[in-house]
Request: fold
Amino acid sequence: MRKVAVVAGGVSTWGVRSATWGELVQEAGNALFSSARSLGAKDVDSLFVGAAQPERFAFQSHVAPMTAELLGLHPWKVLRRNELACASGQAAIQDAYAAIASGLSDVAVVLGVEKMNIPSMAEATTSMANVLDRAWDGVQGGTAPPFFAMAAQRHMHEYGTTAEQMALVSVKNHKFANTNPKSQFYSKTFTKEKILSSPMVSPPLRLGDCSSMTDGSGAVLLVSEEKARTYTDTPVWISATAQYTDFHNLANMPSLSSWTGLKKAASELYQKGGIDPTDIDFAEVHDCFTISEIIEYEELGFCKKGQGGKFIQEGQSDLGGKVTVNPRGGLLGCGHPLGATGIGQAVEVLEQFQSKVPAARHVKDAEVALTHNLSGSANVHTLTLYRREN
Amino acid sequence: MRKVAVVAGGVSTWGVRSATWGELVQEAGNALFSSARSLGAKDVDSLFVGAAQPERFAFQSHVAPMTAELLGLHPWKVLRRNELACASGQAAIQDAYAAIASGLSDVAVVLGVEKMNIPSMAEATTSMANVLDRAWDGVQGGTAPPFFAMAAQRHMHEYGTTAEQMALVSVKNHKFANTNPKSQFYSKTFTKEKILSSPMVSPPLRLGDCSSMTDGSGAVLLVSEEKARTYTDTPVWISATAQYTDFHNLANMPSLSSWTGLKKAASELYQKGGIDPTDIDFAEVHDCFTISEIIEYEELGFCKKGQGGKFIQEGQSDLGGKVTVNPRGGLLGCGHPLGATGIGQAVEVLEQFQSKVPAARHVKDAEVALTHNLSGSANVHTLTLYRREN
Reply:
């Protein structure tokens, strides 16, 4: 298994954009190519595209070769498009990792993109509902907000987690997003009071607890060890990947508040990486709703089960705490353009390790970081472990 | 790079089916699990799903975990869904190949599925159009039949290829499909005269020159070398993969009748496999239209450029000829359920090498075979090389 490095990356501005799907692809390409030393189109032997639903949001399929055309690329090794709902971007990164590790590719662009704000937002939100099984959960109204609301209610019931604790996740992540000019909610102030008085979406989750519909894109360059120093002096290494697929339909899930699939995936990741959770310096996790991040603290082993609310309240996930979580601003602060989210997380890992982020969110001397995406009803968990040093 | 074997596989019946998308998934699963010796759900560490457009044909996204649930699987290593239009199935196989070759997975199910015959065939055919760039080619009516019709016209003009020669491709593939009870057109007779008098679709292509809208599924089991003999005594080995991405939009393509992307991919495949085209005993290629197979003979190096029409006329692609092409019945005879087509081809390779196919299509003593799918406007070409012996 060959070593794989992330050597360059960048994102478009995320938010409600007038840019088309294709323009978002090109913005990500520009951000990537301008961030890498001496990268030319002819160097790129493979392209991996992460995109969740261009078929519905942009009425466009077969988006991998379209992306190649928009970037002026002719991949001659591997071409893929991954769809794994909210984890599509990270799945694409892991696909490129496998291709390079196995020797099929040496220089791969991984691009994630989603255009979610479209003329018919009814079409957009209805399309979001088809992430769950439409014949079972979908027809019962089991879409994302009510699912995560039930998880929150159960967590509050079992562990005494409070709405205030959940709001603090949103406060922290919006604070970090204010250091990130490309985030959807840059320069917007979110206080605990503002979040706790925002409109109720699905009790107990208010608007301030929810991530948003976002247009955005991002791209990273993954290369083999031999090529790493061609494109940067400070490569970042993929140390391990892990993924677990739990029950898909609500009726089959053993618990709403314990995400055993994440616990299993994290255990695999730590074992492969030869570390334990205390070695993680910072983590980019999937805060699609505030309750998600609280449960993730627990399943990732940053605190004991049931102590996630206390963890945020004590500031343990803030800069200077036990493990800085979502320094980029998370899905709550940056927005959540499905296929691009995992790429944005990887770009943050790269820029943290390369000391390119503002001091207000820089985790100094960090050596180990992880990224996490869930998809569906938190039944699929996708994790990647990164290391600064070779 | 670890060696990877195909050890089991099966397909559903293909055609216009009343089965739902989920039922097709389960039919493929049943076919696979009953074909492998001692395969249990708990053995399967990874799942790769090839599906082109469930978002539009079945209004369902995030189909990888849904497929896991329908098969009773909990993949704990890798979960992916690949979309590469008509090549989605083979792309999924290549993804599993990379995962196993790199050491990320040991036992992987690859399942391809498409449900194309839906209540609104207007919705289905319109969705097919979004395989090309809708903002450019699509808006000009540049969908599959007129594109391949233009390729045919140009090939006729340049090389003297005739409608009769194209019809012979369809006759051959339907003849083979009559040995295959799971094919869409099983027990239907297609003579040259019938094809040449079938309704005109897009000149010069008639209905008998075109593959169809098909519901179908299939699954194969890919495993590492260490696991191969657990599931069969006669594993088939993936010797090499190759892929090339040429220009996407019609206006950028240098030629309609020369598919240089396929020529490049084939050259890479043969070089990696240490063979030349004369070593290929049989080939499963992408005969979405009769002209496609003729051009593919040429670009794959089975005959000289421009001689594809002569090649079929002389019977060189029939059983007993230089290289048997599409013994399964091809897309013309079996139908073309997008995500399942590449899987059906792999199942044919497996069953040919394992001597499980009827004598009327059995390529005896075959040792080397390839599968090929194109996607889009023949701009992406995906190839896999298989060997019987270890």
About this structure: The longest helix of chain B spans residues 144-159. Chain B touches chain A through 66 residues (CB under 8 Å).
